[in-house]
Amino acid sequence: MSESSIDPIQQARIDLAAALRWADRTGLGEGICNHFSLLVPGTTDHFLLNPQGLHWSEITVSDLIVVDPDGNLLEGKHQAEPTAFFIHSRVHLNRPSAKCVLHTHMPYATALCCVERGRVEMCCQGALRYYNRIAYDDEYAGLALDQAEGDRICSNLANADALFLANHGVVMTGEDMACAFDDLYYLERACMHQVLAQSTGQALKLIPDGVCRITSEQIAGERQQSYFFLEAIKRILARESPEYLE
């Protein structure tokens, strides 16, 4: 069956399950914590979410749940983690363009969240796709256990696609799963290169601002790569872990 013949909601489920599986394979997950959410096609306030208690490596299409803006279960055989949706829901509702919201504690990006004024420096080509696209929340305020904290976090995303949360982790937003996951994956790679470079004790070789701007525009013009990446992921998973489609 071609993807064009698959119901859009089912396709969204497949994309989300594939992204969770691949995030585990690439070390972006942490235990059974962290969450990916995706707007249910055809709706404005229903969201697909990975459920409480399941490891990303075992997630299947049918395991995904649908919740409302308050995290109440609308569809699914599992429950939502009580704290899972306070960040996601506020971002989704306050930024309509953020149809996909990914929150992780991926190691290298989180390492930058754990140092004073940690920033993604424009020191490698991979970082340039995030030029003027990252915001920083420099005040850790504990667990996001209510809407007020979700709103406070979201307020930092007004003019950015990615947010670094001090002492915590990162939030990546996007218009769909392909764009958001591609950005999340390469953000971790850029952070890895920076942390490894800094570990040498040598000064970072920063790229001039004008070159950063031009290159970021060039990278933005190659957005089709994001869709090729997700399709490749799904082909590999269909071959090696076909049960994810169940």
Question: How would you describe this protein?
Answer:
The chain is α+β, with helices and mostly antiparallel strands. It has one domain: 3-Layer(aba) Sandwich (L-fuculose-1-phosphate Aldolase). Helix content is 39%, strand content 13%. It has an eight-stranded mixed sheet, sandwiched between helices. β6, α4 (147-155) and β7 (162-165) form a beta-alpha-beta unit. α1 (8-25) packs parallel to α5, α3 packs across α5 and α5 crosses α7. The radius of gyration is 18 Å and the shape is globular. The two termini are 15 Å apart.
Label the structural class.
alpha+beta
CATH architecture: 3-Layer(aba) Sandwich
Radius of gyration: 18 Å
Q: In the CATH scheme, what's the topology name?
A: L-fuculose-1-phosphate Aldolase
Q: How many helical elements?
A: 7
| Terminal CA distance | 15 Å
If you average the pLDDT, what whole number results? 94
In CATH terms, the superfamily is Class II aldolase/adducin N-terminal domain
**Which percent range fits the helix content?**
25-40%
Q: Write out the strand line-up for the largest beta sheet, numbering strands in chain order.
A: 4-3-2-1-5-8-7-6
Total domain units: 1
**Which spans have pLDDT < 50 for at least 5 consecutive residues?**
none
- Shape from CA axes? globular
Strand content: 5-15%
Per CATH, the class reads: Alpha Beta
Task: Give the biggest beta sheet.
Answer: 8 strands, mixed
